[in-house]
Structure formats: structure tokens, C-alpha cells
Design a protein that fits this description.
Radius of gyration: 26 Å
Low-confidence stretches: 103-163, 212-226
Helix content: 40-55%
Strand content: 5-15%
Oligomer: single chain
Shape: globular
Distance between the termini: 66 Å
Length: 571
């Protein structure tokens, strides 16, 4: 037990507790980094030292380190950056007094910590003197856990399900194999490998192991797999034709050889720079892998409760029926779907999928104005409560985090949405929808340059492609807000070409044409928007102003005035 500044860091339970005894959650990598700081108080640690300790044998960018430090400061309330200080040109320093407090070590009681053959390794310092957290072998950790459980429960035998995934499964990413051995394909395979590994290394609930580079990269069936002591091996193959490149990936479970399918990704070569081509290939497969990995881990956790499977089947049926009922939008169908989901949730109150489905439905009802004022407030409160419960139950689920982020964004809780969306990206670094929602939050907080960069990053990844129109719209929207009308036009036109049946993008397009000096096209775009959204006026097109910045509101009023001049009714 370590104590500092009113906090406690329980190494045995892997918990950080605040001054009031509350548990403060940290992501695994953030926890590892904080432990290194606590092991080295008063010592300046270079960025390179910290990155090598937290991400051994894996190349990551400095932004991963910065994000972890930011989270530690937030957990400690260190807004003034006095506890973890940046030492210019040298690194970071934990500038607080850390005291060790006596605590009962169950593992020591169960077995000698450094017994020969135990698989345990003592704390060691590298050549620079940096203390690293203990690294226990999986067999030893399982044995120590079994002993502890047996003593606590008074049992003589503890049985584990051998096929369940570990809490943090290990992944061995084999180098991308080029189907053809020409220079272009080989160089592209190397570049995509680097970007894929870099992205996967950012995922919090997996661990990457270094492949054995002494053996050539092969695909399953071509040679004996090279798992590198991993739970899964990821194999990828790159093939091409004159018009496109295709990247195919497979995840092989080393315990039984089971292959987890991953959709192939094809990227057209036309008009893409080499850098963007590499990025989209890596992002396309990386996104699919991240989602599949997350699904496997979540499904494995749910299998721990046998009754959950039966309840889940009934819940899935209710969700499918409710979704089918709402496909043709009407207030009557909305009421039917809501009643159906509420009944299912009464029968299974802890079902996360039902909570998300009902919360999403209620949010849609709010946006469609199908509640009165009291009903709107109640629906928003109920939806937020359900999503908070869902996130507590499945804190690492991409689907849950995205749903919660979308709700927070739609209800103008922008700071909270930025935090939740960033959390989703900790499990899928290529999550374009999370990036889009982050960009919307930044935009409404008046951080236009940040929003523009975020939307463009989503466009670089282009995952999932079904959401492409959203970040294209985001870029165009931001440019209009910045009064850069010529830059906005191609982005808005591309977005509307994908999804034309929405009035707001056409209104933005009208403002962009107007600002660019083309009044005829501006009036035509507004007329089309009015066809799609009849009854639109200068009053009801404005977004809710709650928590929006002055800069965002002022830019929005500028767009409104442009549309009024073009003919938008102003009651």
C-alpha cells in the first residue's frame, strides 16, 4: 500500500483510492504508468524511459503517453500540474512524498514469492535505474489465484474453464504478407504492418507480444503457426490489381486453432496519395479487428453467467421486434416500440442491450418532438440513467461507450461526451463515429481548428465507411462556421451525394454557395432543403444553445441570417 497526498494506491488489489476512500478507475496502461511514477518519486523520467516501460517492444507515438499523463492528473485533481511536473527538455517528475504502508500480501502467504520455478520475477531496475512493475508468469498467477480462492472458500479444489479468454488477451500480429513479391507490394506491406501494430498497441484491453522475427511471416496452413506465447495470432495478406489493394486478416486462437473471420478491406487506388492509402488499409482492417476483439472479450465475460445467455436471446428478440416496428417512422410505431422494450426490460432489468436500445429509442423520441416538455425531461433522464448503468456494467464495451457518447452529444453535454468518446477510442483507435462525435463536441465548444483536424482524421481512417457522410459533413460544417466557404463546398457536396435526404446539410450548402458568391446555387440548395424539411423557419432550424460557446452561437446566427436573406421564412 502506497500513500500520498491523501490518496492510497493498493498494489495488491490494483486500485487507486481517493481521500474519501472512493475507487478511482484507471485504464490499464494509465495504471502501469502511474505505478512507475510511484516507484520513482522525485526522479525525472524521460519520455523514452516511460514509453519503453509501459509499451515494451511496441512502437507508439508520444500522444499515447500524453493521454495517460492527462488521465493521471485528472484522477489526482492536479489541474495546476504540480504533482506530475514537466521538466523541460528532460521528462516528467512525480513531485510528491510517497509513503509505504503495511498491508497483508495474500500471494506471499500462499507461496514463496521468489521460489525457484515459481515463474515470479522480482522488481528489477534497468540500466538507468528505472524500477519496473513485477511481471508474473500466467501459470504462477493462476496458481496463486487458485490458492487464494481455495483458502477463502475453504475448498480443496478450484476448477477453471480452460477455454475462457484471459482478462487481457495477448495478440501476436504477424507482418503483412504481400501476395506478389514486387517492390511496390512489399513496401506497402511493411508500411501497413507498422501502422496496424501502432494502432493495436493503443488498445487498452489487449496486450501485444513481439513476433519471432527469426521465422518468416506465413499464413495459416502454410507452415507451423508462430504464436509467440499469444492467445491469438493475427495473420494478414495484401493483394492488388491495377485499380485497388485488398487486405485480408484472420485471427487464429492458438489453444484450438479456431479462426475468427474478419471482413476483408479493399481500397481503390484512384486519387489517393501513398500515405493515405497505407492509412486506410491499416485503419480498415484495424477497425474490424478492434471490433471483433472487443466483441469476443465482452461475449466471454457474459458467458461467465450461464443465465445471461437465455435472457439475452429473449432480449434480442424484443430489440429486433422494436426495431422493425420503428423502421417506418411515426409516433404510433414509436409508442409501440417503447412499450415493447419497457416490458422486456422489466423482465430483464440488468440487460445492457435492452438498456441501450430503449435509451436510443427515447433519444429519438426527444429529437422528433414526440414528447411534451415534461415527457422530454423524463425521457432524457431515464435514457441517461440507463446508459450510465450500461457503462458501469460493461465499461470496456465499444457499443455501450458509443451509445452513451452519442446521447451526451445530442443533449449538449459536450465535455462529458468528449471524455466518453475518447474512452471508446481506447478500444478502437480507428473509430470514425467516435471521432465524428468528438469533432461535434469540439465544434460546439468553439474549438474550430480542433474540430476540423478531428473530422479530417476520421476521413483519413474512413471507418466505418457507412458513416463517411458524417465526417464529410463535419469538415464542411466547420469550414462554413469559419467562413471559409470555398473550402466547405467540396466536402458538403460529397456528403450530400452519399446521403441527400437531410435538410440541414443542404442549408449549410446554401450558406456556403452564398458565401462563395453563387446566389443561384445557394437559392436552389435552400429550396431543396425546404422540400425535404417543409415548415423549416429561422427559429426551428437553430440547434439548442445549452453549453454551446459564444463563438459557435455567433457563427450559427451568421448562417441563419444568410438563409433568411436567401428566402428562409422568419416568423
Amino acid at each position: 500500500m502506497l500513500r500520498f497526498a491523501g490518496f492510497e494506491f493498493d498494489q495488491q488489489r490494483a486500485e487507486l483510492r481517493g481521500p474519501g476512500g472512493e475507487i478511482i478507475r484507471l485504464r490499464p496502461k494509465t495504471y502501469d504508468l502511474f505505478r512507475i511514477f510511484l516507484d520513482n518519486p522525485g526522479r525525472t523520467l524521460s519520455k523514452q524511459e516511460l514509453m519503453e516501460a509501459v509499451w515494451p517492444s511496441v512502437h507508439v507515438g508520444e500522444d499515447s503517453l500524453f493521454q495517460c499523463i492527462k488521465e493521471i492528473r485528472a484522477a489526482l485533481g492536479d489541474e495546476q500540474r504540480q504533482m506530475i511536473r514537466l521538466v523541460s527538455g528532460r521528462g516528467y517528475l512525480l513531485d510528491i512524498q510517497v509513503e509505504a504502508a503495511p498491508t497483508l500480501d495474500v500471494a506471499k502467504e500462499a507461496a514463496p514469492v521468489f521460489a525457484p520455478g515459481s515463474g515470479m520475477t522480482p522488481p528489477a531496475a534497468d540500466e538507468a535505474g528505472l524500477k519496473r512493475p513485477w511481471r508474473r508468469g500466467r501459470a504462477a498467477l493462476a496458481a496463486a489465484t487458485a490458492v487464494g480462492l481455495a483458502v477463502a472458500a475453504g475448498l480443496a479444489l478450484v476448477v477453471f474453464q480452460a477455454e475462457r479468454l484471459p482478462q487481457v488477451p495477448t495478440m501476436n500480429v504477424m507482418p503483412v504478407v504481400a501476395a506478389s513479391q514486387d517492390t511496390e507490394a512489399t513496401a506497402l506491406a511493411v508500411a501497413v504492418t507498422d501502422r496496424l501494430v501502432d494502432g493495436l498497441a493503443r488498445i487498452d484491453n489487449i496486450k501485444l507480444v513481439t513476433p519471432d522475427t527469426r521465422k518468416p511471416a506465413v499464413l495459416p496452413g502454410q507452415a507451423t503457426p508462430n504464436p509467440g506465447n499469444a492467445d491469438y495470432v493475427i495473420y494478414t495478406e495484401l493483394s492488388g490489381d491495377p485499380a485497388s489493394w485488398t487486405l485480408r486478416a484472420r485471427m487464429v486462437k492458438t489453444s484450438n486453432g479456431q479462426v475468427e473471420p474478419v471482413p476483408a478491406v479493399t481500397i481503390e487506388k484512384a486519387d489517393l496519395s501513398p500515405d493515405l492509402l497505407r492509412t486506410r488499409l491499416a485503419a480498415g482492417v484495424g477497425h474490424q479487428l478492434a471490433v471483433r476483439i472487443n466483441t469476443l472479450i465482452e461475449a466471454d465475460n457474459q458467458r461467465a453467467d450461464p443465465a445471461s445467455a437465455a435472457r439475452g436471446a429473449a432480449a434480442k428478440a424484443a430489440i429486433n421486434q422494436a426495431t422493425a416496428s420503428i423502421m417506418q417512422t411515426s409516433q404510433e410505431r414509436f409508442r409501440v416500440a417503447q412499450t415493447m422494450l419497457e416490458k422486456a426490460l422489466q423482465d430483464d432489468p440488468d440487460n445492457v442491450n435492452l438498456q441501450m436500445a430503449l435509451a436510443a429509442l427515447q433519444l429519438r423520441g426527444v429529437q422528433m418532438a414526440w414528447y411534451d416538455a415534461l415527457g422530454t425531461a423524463t425521457a432524457e433522464k431515464n435514457a441517461q440513467t440507463m446508459l450510465q448503468r450500461a457503462q458501469r456494467a460493461r465499461p470496456n464495451s465499444i457499443a455501450v461507450l458509443e451509445a452513451h457518447c452519442r446521447f451526451l452529444n445530442a443533449t449538449n453535454q459536450f465535455i462529458e461526451s468528449l471524455v466518453t468518446c475518447s474512452r471508446a477510442m481506447a478500444f478502437d483507435p480507428w473509430d470514425g463515429m467516435a471521432l465524428y462525435l468528438i469533432g461535434v463536441g469540439q465544434l460546439q465548444l468553439g474549438r474550430f481548428e480542433d474540430a476540423l483536424a478531428t473530422f479530417k482524421q476520421a476521413d483519413r481512417f474512413d471507418t466505418p465507411r457507412v458513416s463517411r457522410w458524417t465526417w464529410l459533413l463535419g469538415v464542411g460544417w466547420t469550414y462554413v462556421m469559419m467562413q471559409k466557404y470555398h473550402e466547405a463546398l467540396p466536402w458538403l457536396e460529397r456528403s450530400i451525394a452519399i446521403t441527400p435526404a437531410s435538410g440541414r446539410p443542404l442549408m449549410l450548402l446554401a450558406a456556403a454557395y452564398d458565401g462563395a458568391g453563387n446566389s443561384d446555387k445557394a437559392k436552389a440548395a435552400l429550396a431543396k432543403a425546404m422540400e425535404i424539411r417543409p415548415g423549416s423557419t429561422a427559429t426551428n432550424i437553430m440547434l439548442p444553445s445549452k453549453n454551446s460557446s459564444h463563438a459557435f452561437l455567433a457563427a450559427g446566427l451568421k448562417i441563419r441570417d444568410q438563409l433568411i436573406a436567401l428566402g428562409l421564412p422568419n416568423p
